Amino acid sequence: MQFELIEIQSLVNKGRQQEALKQCDIAISENSNQVQLYAIKTKILESLGLQNEVIDIWEQGIQNNKNDFLFYYEKVFALRRQQKYEEIIKCYDQGIMNNKNQAIYYNFKYIELEKQDRLVEAIQVWDLAIENNKTDSYYYRQKIQALIKCFGEDNCQKQIFECWDYGIQNGNNNLFFIKSKVNISKSYFYKYSIIQYS
After folding, report:
1. Is residue 106, in this structure, part of any structural domain at all?
2. What is the per-residue DSSP string for 130-184?
3. Same domain, yes or no, for 77 and 2?
4. Which UniProt keywords are listed (predicted)?
5. Are 106 and 126 in contact (CB under 8 A)?
6. How far apart, in Å, do the first and last CA atoms of the chain sit?
7. How many CB atoms lie within 10 A of CB 180?
8. Nearest-CA neighbor of 11 among 42, 19, 46, 41?
9. Residues 167-194: tens digit of each pLDDT
10. How far, in Å, CA of 63 to CA of 183, rounded?
11. 55, 75 in Cβ contact below 8 A?
């Protein structure tokens, strides 16, 4: 593949972009999982002012590499440069659909929604993650942290209880889930007692 990259760059240096693009297509058809080939093609397209085609190339990369986060990340980067923020969310949705058990897709979607000040939707990311990964405590913890960040711990006690309850109902009878619920209960009871008797 290194030879192909050198050959493509040589064509670009000689101002033969159309030939370089054809070489990119050939190289990608033979090495469809090599992100560098898509990257060099997108640079050529950008130099020709073909911004929309850049996004199409990263989508091609995703279709050829549905389980490789790097292709989604590159597409998001291209979308951000064009200020297509709703498309960024859709890209992460696509990643989640293809990789339901991979935390990185949920994390990046959550961060993006938070950047866009869409906090309720950001919390819903963790609801979807929990539905797709019912026995993984990581997603329950992330939801609780998001609730606290969005509403403040004192204003979301009920949702926190419900989250741990849901985890236990889903067969998570391991000590982590039970202890977490007990700790929240103690904390809530202690705060409530102080308020009531002060």
Report:
1. no
2. HHH-TT-HHHHHHHHHHHHHHH-GGG-HHHHHHHHHHHHHTT--SHHHHHHHHHH
3. yes
4. Repeat, TPR repeat
5. yes
6. 72
7. 20
8. 19
9. 888 766 666 666 666 666 555 544 544 4
10. 45
11. yes
